[in-house]
Predict the 3D structure of the following.
Amino acid sequence: MSIGGLWIMLGAYGAGAAVSILGSRWGNATRVLGHVALFLGALAGLALAIQRLTGGALQTAIHVELPHLFPFANLVLTLDGLSAFFLLIVSIVTIAAAIYGPAYLKAHSGSSPAVEVLGINIFVASMALVLCAGDAMTFLLAWEGMTLASYVLVVSEGKESNTRAGLIYMIMAHAGTALLMVVFLTLAVHAGSFDFAAIRTAAAALSGTERSVLFFLALVGLGAKAGVVPLHIWLPQAHPAAPSHASALMSGVMLKMAIYGILRLGLDLLAPATGPLPPSWGWIVLALGAISAIIGVLYALQQHDLKRLLAFHSVENVGIILMGVGMAMLLAHRGGVADALAALGLAAALLHTLNHAAFKGLLFLCAGVVQTATHILNMEELGGLARRMPWTAWLFLIGAVAISALPPLNGFVSEWMTFQTLILASAYLRSGSGLAVIAVAAALALTGGLAAACFVKAFGVTFLGRPRSTHAAEAVEGAPSMLAGMVLLATVCVVIGIMPGYAMVFLDSPVMRLLGGVGPSQLVTARGPLVLLASGSPGTGTAVSMTAAAVLLGVVALVAWIVVVWPRTLARRREPTWTCGMAPQSRFDYTATAFAKPLRFIFALLYQPKRTVRKKTGSTPYVLSQLHWQSDVVDLALVHFYNHIQAGVTRVANAIRQRSTGRIHDYIGFVLITLLITLLVFGRG
Amino acid sequence: MSLDLAAHLIDIIGAFLLITMIVILEAGDLYRAIYTMAVQSVFIALAGAVLGAATHNTDLWVIAGLTLVVKVFVLPWLLLRVIHRMRIHHKIEPLIPVTATLAIAAAIVMLAFYLSSSLVSLKQVITGNALPIGIALMLIGILVMMSRRTALMQMVGLFASENGIFFTAMAISQGMPLIIEIGVTLDVILGALVMGVIILRVKSSIGSDIADLDQLKG
Amino acid sequence: MDPTLTRWIWPLVQTALLVLLGPLVTGLIQKMKARLQCRRGAGILQPYRDLLKLLRKGTVQSDTSGSFFRVVPVLVLGATCAAATLVPVFFAPGTAGYASLLPLGDALLLAGWFALARFLTAIAALDAGGAFGGMGASREMTVATLVEPALILVIFSVAIVAGTTDLRVIAGHPVGMRGSFGAADLLALFAMLILLLAETGRIPVDNPDTHLELTMLHEGMLLEHSGPGLGCLVLAHHIKQIVLIAFVQALFFPWKAATATSHALIMGLGAFLLGTLALSVFLAIVESSYAKLRFFNLPQFLSISLLSSFLAVALRLL
Amino acid sequence: MSSLLWILPLVPIVVGLAMLGVKDRRLLNLLDVASTSTIGVLVWVVARAVMQAGSLRAVKTFYADAVTVVFLGLIALLSVTTAIYTIGWMRREVASGGMAERRLPKYFALTQAFIATMLITVLADNLGLLWITMEATTITSALLVGFRRDSDGLEAAWKYIIVTTIGISFGLFGTVLVYAAAAHAGASEGAMNFTTIAAMASQLDPNIVRIGFIFILIGYGTKAGLAPMHMWLPDAHSQAPTPVSALLSGALIKCALFGIIRFHTIAIGACGPGFSGHLLLLFGIISVVAATPFILTQQNFKRLLGYHSVEHVGIIALGLGIGGPLGTYAALLHVINHGVTKALVFFVAGDAIDRYKTHTMDKIRGFIRAAPYAGTFLMLGAFSLAGTPPFSIFVSELLVLKAGLAGRYYVVIAIFLLMVIAIFAGLIHHAGKMAFGEPDPAVPRGGEPASGVLAMSMLVVVMIGLGLMIPPVLDTIFTRAVEVTLGH
């Protein structure tokens, strides 16, 4: 089945891409067929991944030789535990996106169906190929293919803003790829082959410093893709620009390809043959994680564009994932307790990867429905949608609770595991390093709090209160197929949240592939799938049962409902909201800007908020006839780093270009002088 | 004629060539530059003849004749026609002051000697300074092209520097194979024609010296 | 008694106790405040009366609010009660935490439940679509973001030693783990007391008994609720308060019965009641001797707790 | 079989002469396509023969080995596609009055002559003949550059012919020196033939060859557009009629490179791989660096492409300079890849410029909407030039990179990558702005000539094909070519 499954999956994606030749003439047919192919491919991928993950952790990797395309590198596909797990993620979100897609695109006829179908199929296919790549060449090809396809999706609507977003995205991604090329080619040179197997052995022979240099180069390259601060600037611009189900795939899945790359390089290819990794790796990844998490969520708080807000949250969640990865790198192969903790940390990271894919996908799809219904993404102009589109509202709420890491949904589980790893690790490391780990834990806590605040704002301002624009007032619920896709992802969130034990099985083979030792299913669910267990050494540790917790919540709430609120015996009236006696209107609602104001003040250092207030007074200066109030925050990285670079380069380039006179005598002079100098320098041996 | 006599003559001719080149370089008048170029070509032809006599290599005679015809008569005539058709004043205003150009020329000559001093093996062929003079001629020719404004001077400089190449070719290896020499000369004539055509076309359509055009830049 | 039965029984008994005593503590504090302010004040059972009254009243719901608005109160109550099951009151068989069939007692989950309750309350406040609700929600969430890290650090300062975040284990091993009550504990306790003020919404962070829009945080969010719904939220607030008080004791004064002998149980219960009384007094005194801080001074105030809790952790580790 | 070698250039010469007598545009186009495709077929045959025999020789001075085949293939491919593209392009030009009916025969004849000279250049074994035809390419193409007879065109033509002729004369001097060296090393018969000299390279006086190679590199480098001798290139390539630009950028500068490669081989034999390699490396990186600022701030579409040629010639020189089998392989591969892509982009540029009646890129908007095919090809070409897969240039740049890393030229690689990224940014910026958005209503929509689309699609197929695989046949050709170049 395995190899067959691989081919079926790729074939389906290929077919989906091929559908695009139908072109725009039969637009709907193209859309539907293309997404059907996408769906089937993802289904095959899902089956393949599950079969691979549940078929015993240590079974040998699937290994497929591709046709001999390049004389200097033979392309190989391998599917081991790690790849399979990420393939699982890709497939799940893709299935939802494929169900959701057609109706959404039908509503947004901004671009040609052919391009969209081609783009999304190749996009997903190349992500699958990145995961299945068994050699550097395939990896690089698929990696750039992924970038290119997503670029097509970003610019597919052809608006100026999209073009700009796409440009920044492409530049960052390409720079990242350049670094990856350097890393992989250096390895290939040493290995004498692009094959990962050969590279693995060759890397083991390298000196520690060489390996560290390569790893950090790769970390920067991959970080640019993962949106790690300060390489994140492209992300909040590019993700919103794409069609929503593509955004869901980009934010929910594509970033994870970078995580995969970090794991693949850090813990597999570049890892020393024996013994622990260089501590610097783990620490730096940990630091990046903490910074990205906090900065990401802080900037998310100040966004009023729904999709931009979600994009910034991807930065945050990548940070959280990196925390787990960092712990795993820090503790891996140190023996005893450390190994168990490393496994726990890696499991946490991987589980959060899956969770984030689920709820971030869900949230982007919801945002897509809102966009479809109102053609607005600016929260300030939305509001009151809950009554007109209850399904979307409830699903968004589920996503919000999950991403805010609140029980009883999946976000809490993975963050709980991360927390447990951090505390147990700090107890294990003691002293300074232990304290550093605790600091990271505090950062994680802060992140959680901010995320909650941010999503109270996002949900409340978007869906509750009164509609603040006619579009919002006339919104209609999304098409059933769109809702179906969202429900699928919501189900994943709930199931993993309430019964996380059953997800541990999937984590076994990736964790054991990278760390050896015992998998999470022995560590975390040693006491059966209903109880989660976080413990370094046997006999100690913390146990929690999400199932029981959820049941408790349900029972109490149900009892309270039946006993107290539900009974109809009591009178129930509806009156306007109390607004100190004035007639309430939508302008009384708390806006997103207002909601985020306290935090804007507290973290002013980071935001450097600019506010401009223009008052127009009437006859007397005491009567305001008009008040214009505007406030915006800056992205420090953008303002203090990237803009300077761009300006500088342009200035230099212009300066040089001004020099060129266009006089033929100068041309001749250059030739002559070059000749003379060259003769003078190299003329005599 | 014996070889070392030939070598001696070639040396003298080389000296004359350098002199003519310097005259071209600081020529303030188109006609003078062109005539000097013709004279220089005469010396090239002479060199060919001398070598031919010395080495009994009939090809060299042909080459000498060819040079005489093309470089001494055809090209100057062509240039003069162009001048005539353009009816331009034939003063040459230098872009770089003449003294400076002369200094550069001196530097070039020294560089040429410096370089050729490493080419021991060639010394044995023809004693004397054929090679450095050849290099110097060619480079100074280019110097003329870059330091004088009018397009015609650029053509003159080009031909002069080609003289340098021919001289070197004869001096260090009794000329290139005949057929190649002919082809090269043919190219030179063709090139000259095309250049002349372009110059005239610009003069007629825009009315300015083409070497002054600098619309395309950056 | 049958051990499996006890495993099931004790958490429920303790939870029930907390739920029942919740309003009483509030009443107690109100009474003491009144006394300190030389008023007679209402009887300490007043909160119960208020609750009963609320549950019997009809509801007036804002015409803009929707289904969320009605569902949230019960969910908040549910979350708070779920949190209540996690904190040991007087009985904490130390080993039970790790091995018990029904692992209740994880401090992180406790924090999680409170966060959920707060999240939902804030959302309901926005649903009404008034400025007060929004302001309350905004400020409450802001304070929460500052409280969370400190709370986590306090928990960790203890958990590092215990090697677990299970409160029943922490409370179950009074001497064995931490030895005497050291400097680290003192710092952590100090931090926790500040958090107690913040989380229970009391002066100087919040003012529980005013509806002046400029001062209120938590009350602002409840403004539009009425009848049973409001009842649920108020009750949830009472419970949250006592749960936090119990939480403080579980972390720092873990005098719990380790075995199910009647003697030990009575001792544990007594200890709990005394501790609760003490903390109530503390709250009352602080409330009546301080003024409410300006909202934008809160960060400094809370950062004190953040710092001291971090120092506590540092002392533990270094 | 070997007689094909002199028949090959004869085809365009004969056809060209015939064209002078033809007035009808369609017939001229037909002849054009016919002759070029004949060339294509003949090249195919020659290639097969060379693959079997290893090398071919005719009338003592025509010679073809694997390197020749690589360049022949490029010239043939570009001539054919250009001929096809010219059909539609010429129709537009004549209709818009850009090209007078009566001058058509001259134009086509010149093109044929141009192609013929290029063919002889790469077929010549005699280095003198190589020089002569190289100069001839300058003369013929200069006439084509200035064909429109407007001030800019003539200025460009003048700069082009003067500067490259200077370069070429340096080339001649270098040739003379090497020839002398060979003559003195005792080669009497055919002392000017590449094969002879290469065979006895080790006996040449390294000092002479060193100076000779410098002259060759600067001289032919001028024609190849290596910085800092490149300045004429953007002028000429931007002013020439579009099909000619495509040939200039795609094929002609490669012919100059062919000359350099020949002498590179000799230099390797005479003074070891170090000397010529390092010079090429130096000028390669200089070209890449020099091109960057002009690409970033360029406003004129065709000038942008001109500077891009400078960059890519630099990359080829880089590959040659890094040397070794891998680097040389990469360089030769890049010769093909860049030729194909650059021709494609010039075709697109021609369409865009005719459509929007401007060279300034800021005025070009929504090209994809206006011309779906050309617009899409523009983006594809831009990404290919920028070196992203699945396009061919990615592969060759990857190999250059790998060779550089293997040779531990870390500094060079670092500079190279920085520049490539900057250029990428500039290129995608320009292309994106042109391709997307809404064209203003005045711009004609659709109506793309089938011939143009066909020509472009042919190139795109090659471009993507070579990006996805290197067929074994090509691989063997390139491997042989590498051996020849490195003188094994």
